[in-house]
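Priority: medium. Attachment 1 of 2:
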């Protein structure tokens, strides 16, 4: 893999996150290093429980306390040491510069508020003076919803799963972040809608210059999406590299097993 000479947007070094007792902790993340450069899509791949989602939450210091504890390492975001920031500084970072799309949009969206109100909340907090109604409709249009004005007035249960996920993406884009963390963004969606959502993320990277961290358990999903991939198992990075290289010539046995788990249309001979 060619060495980059520019500085990474995000530089994670030696990240350690523990759960449980201090005397006998569960080492959910055990010395993880990874980088994300400006304008690229990086995939963090592994099975459930491998530590990928909690590693992503650490980028904005969102590890749930006191159940979880960041006990070591650093996260540098454009020269800022995230773990050294106070609560006021973290509020300016979260949503405004690092935004998240969480899996299962039906449970992430508040059922008692319209989607327009929920997207507008981020604008009210971080972009004072911006006309909220017009901006919400603009955001909904940018993620491919055909009737933004009508969608803004809808409640989550009135939208399909794919439309709900597009709303989540619009909400994440509300403050024009530099990094978008997409945590299993295609979970529970049918394959056609999965492709639409992944294509949308690729298009947003092109049009907005976004950097994207894509979290998934499926190497098949990242094949045509990510520039680079980190494979995570048991709280550690076991393999990394350019996506095409890792998929064609995986070196670690765990990576090979993940590849074998990808469904194939043709029977191997």
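Attachment 2 of 2:
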């Amino acid at each position: 893999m060619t060495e980059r000479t520019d500085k990474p947007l995000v530089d994670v070094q030696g990240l350690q996150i523990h759960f449980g007792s201090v005397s006998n902790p569960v080492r959910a993340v055990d010395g993880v290093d990874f980088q994300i450069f400006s304008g690229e899509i990086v995939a963090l791949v592994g099975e459930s429980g491998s530590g990928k989602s909690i590693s992503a939450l650490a980028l904005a210091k969102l590890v749930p306390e006191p159940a979880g504890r960041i006990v070591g390492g650093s996260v540098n975001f454009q020269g800022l040491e995230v773990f050294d920031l106070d609560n006021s500084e973290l509020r300016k970072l979260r949503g405004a510069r690092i935004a998240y799309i969480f899996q299962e949009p039906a449970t992430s969206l508040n059922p008692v508020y319209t989607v327009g109100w929920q997207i507008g909340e981020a604008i009210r907090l971080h972009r004072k003076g911006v006309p909220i109604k017009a901006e919400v409709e603009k955001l909904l249009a940018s993620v491919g919803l055909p009737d933004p004005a009508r969608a803004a007035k809808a409640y989550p249960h009135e939208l399909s799963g794919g439309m709900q996920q597009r709303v989540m993406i619009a909400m994440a884009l509300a403050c024009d972040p530099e990094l978008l963390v997409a945590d299993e963004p295609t979970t529970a969606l049918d394959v056609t809608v999965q492709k639409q959502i992944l294509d949308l993320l690729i298009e947003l990277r092109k049009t907005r210059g976004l950097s994207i961290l894509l979290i998934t358990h499926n190497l098949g999903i990242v094949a045509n999406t990510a520039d680079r991939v980190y494979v995570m198992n048991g709280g550690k990075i076991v393999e990394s590299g350019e996506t095409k290289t890792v998929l064609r010539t995986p070196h670690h046995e765990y990576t090979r097993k993940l590849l074998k788990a990808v469904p194939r249309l043709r029977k191997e001979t």
